[in-house]
Amino acid sequence: MSPFNREDKFSLFRHSRTMHQGNRTTISGFFLLGLTVGSEQQLLIFTVFVCMYLVTMVGNTLIILAIISDTHLHSPMYFFLANLSFTDICFTTTTVPKLLADIQTRNPYISFEGCLTQMYFFMLLVDLDNFLLAAMAYDRYIAICHPLHYVALLSPKRCALLVVIPWVISNLVSVLHLSLLSRLPFCEWRVVPHFFCDLEPILRLACSDTKINNLLILVVGGAVIFIPFSFILLSYALIGAAVFAVPSVKGKWKTFSTCGSHLSAVSLFYGSIVGVYFLPASSYSAERDKVAAIMYTVVTPMMNPFIYSLRNTDIKRALRRLLSKRNFF
């Protein structure tokens, strides 16, 4: 679903504003190619994305309201879940409304400043999702392996730190990436083969050496992704050891079932992230990246409310109370 036809790319580019200052090209913006499907399918794709966006917004908002309104859910696990839902709302809002506007207006242009802003929030929120999933794994580890110390190890102050520190780290990482990116000269060809401003496709349009930028993605981006992911794996390895020590099969299943929702969310999130950023550069495919990006920017935030509510009796009970006439209206 490209917001403009292939033959229009050159005319759009011809009318774009470009200023040359010495050897450096100062650009005014980029053109987002979008999702490449036929024009007759655009209405269908637009409708699908509108529905997915509305489901994401409503589902995650209901999760937040249910957790706030029900005192039984005022615990570390649901505190992290509420933060994850809020992050998912912002995460989807960073990309989908712009995509929908491009389809409607057939104007896929985004200013350079707007592109940097979109990238900033995108990187900030994807890193926050990553840290929050690690914090939720830590919560499950303490609840299963050290239940007697749960209140002490996950005090309100410590829970707040597990949310505030990721905000600080994610902000620093985003600013670091963008400060280096903003110094790069860009070529005159400014069509981005994506439906939002992502770091990798934008770097491919630069006319100078991007080794430092790519090294930063590999080192800093890799650390931000793989350190929390390794922590999640370690947490579940310890949880698995504790579950196997439970004598009865029913007890094992009951203990481990509390982790099922989180494991599903982790699998969706990290599976698509690895597919975009950590496969060899030689295997780069713009279409593959778009599909993977849709998975973790649209599908995963939409699915998280269902993942965490369908198998959680506390959440279902809180949602029923929230949606009752007495409370909701």
Mean pLDDT across all amino acids: 82
Strand content: 5-15%
What's the N-to-C terminus distance? 40 Å
Please give the share of residues in helix. over 70%
Gyration radius, rounded: 22 Å
Can you tell me the overall shape?
globular
> How can the largest sheet be summarized?
3 strands, mixed
Which structural traits does this protein have?
329 residues, 5% strand, 13 helices
Please tell me about this protein's structure.
The structure is a single chain. A 3-stranded mixed sheet has the order 4-3-5. A two-stranded antiparallel ribbon has the order 1-2. It has helices spanning 8-14, 42-69, 76-105, 112-145, 150-153, 156-181, 199-203, 211-244, 249-257, 260-277, 286-310, 313-323, 325-328, and strands at 18-21, 24-27, 29-32, 109-111, 191-192. It contains 13 helices and 5 strands. It is mainly alpha-helical and 329 residues long. Residues 3-24 have low confidence and may be disordered. α3 (76-105) packs antiparallel against α4 (112-145) and α6 (156-181) packs antiparallel against α8.
